[in-house]
Write a structure and sequence with these properties.
single chain; mainly beta; hypothetical protein yedk fold; five-stranded antiparallel sheet; 4 helices; 12 strands; DNA damage; lyase activity; protease; EC 3.4.-.-
């Protein structure tokens, strides 16, 4: 499962988006429950908000059961996700993500692309509390051998994913696309520590 990712570098164009937080800090080890950046469409323009990584629909009573991931195969049917899939689609920006492989002793891998930034498909919810609107999000994942990875979107797919008028059949085609090419390298075990959030997370094995 894609339980950790990193956002430590961004482009000037990304930093110029409405909502980019003043004093945004780089992060090398973001995990479920963290506050992360979420990109949404507001009319023809994209904007950013901070969101909790763990979807929190307004009707959810048990906040210990906020899903960080949503399976691409079941978005249309799952009550937790189907309305968000239809109405509230977003993007999670990242530089790459971590993957643990192996049986007896799992090894961490860093996966990235030739582009400086990746965009993961996501769903989001907004809920008001005492005059403030809080956002939460779930990362959409797809099967990758025996693992699950974020659903990565290219520029055209990002536009169609965010557009409110994209037909269902086009969205479903995006959900099964596995054409993105990733680079990978094996890492030391430093990233295994969820409290570590620095460039040493990417130390090669």
């Amino acid at each position: 499962m894609s339980g950790r990712f990193a956002l430590f570098r961004w482009t000037p164009a990304f930093a110029a988006l409405p909502g980019f937080p003043e004093g945004q800090q780089p992060h090398w080890n973001l995990a479920p429950g963290a506050q992360i950046l979420l990109q949404r469409a507001e009319g023809e323009q994209r904007s950013l908000v901070r969101a909790r990584w763990g979807l929190t629909p307004p009707w959810l009573k048990d906040l210990s059961k906020t899903p960080a991931h949503a399976r691409a195969e079941t978005l249309v049917d799952q009550p937790m996700f189907r309305e968000g899939f239809r109405l509230r689609r977003g993007l999670i920006p990242a530089n790459g993500f971590y993957e643990w492989r192996g049986t007896a002793r799992k090894r961490p891998y860093w996966l990235s692309s030739q582009d400086s930034m990746l965009y993961f498909a996501a769903l989001w919810e907004a809920y008001p509390v005492e005059g403030h609107v809080y956002f939460s999000t779930a990362m959409v994942t797809q099967a990758a051998a025996s693992l699950r990875r974020p659903l990565l979107l290219n520029e055209q797919q990002q536009q169609r994913w965010l557009a409110a008028d994209t037909p269902l059949d086009e969205l479903q085609a995006i959900l099964v696309d596995t054409s993105q090419v990733l680079r990978e390298r094996v890492l030391s075990n430093l990233v295994n520590d969820p409290k570590l959030d620095g460039p040493e997370c990417l130390t090669p094995a």
